[in-house]
Amino acid sequence: MPTATPIGIAEHDLSQVAFNADGLVPAIVQEQGTRQVLMLGWMNEEALRRTLTTGRSWFWSRSRQEYWCKGETSGDRQWVREAYYDCDGDAVLLVVEQEGKGACHTGEHTCFYRAFGDADAQTK
Fold it and tell me: Which pTM does this prediction carry?
């Protein structure tokens, strides 16, 4: 079973993150090793701090208005290995070790399993 690896928080780095008018920033989650994009979630500053300090991916649910830690219900946990913010500070990238079946609530390994124009994917 993977273990958590906290990432140090530098206040300067956090100050570079440009949260939107709702106080959120999109967080892209990429699988370590394969570099496959697994999902996109939303973080506020507290979710980002929780992610960095716990080594687990935390998000803010816009629909439920609450924090959620990926995998607490499904067992498909994400163990954060690296964290980045982009050149504009308006997006975060988490590189994770994915535990379980995958990241998507549908049971797929990635949330990005449907391609535009892919007739086979339309039936899923």
Answer: 0.91
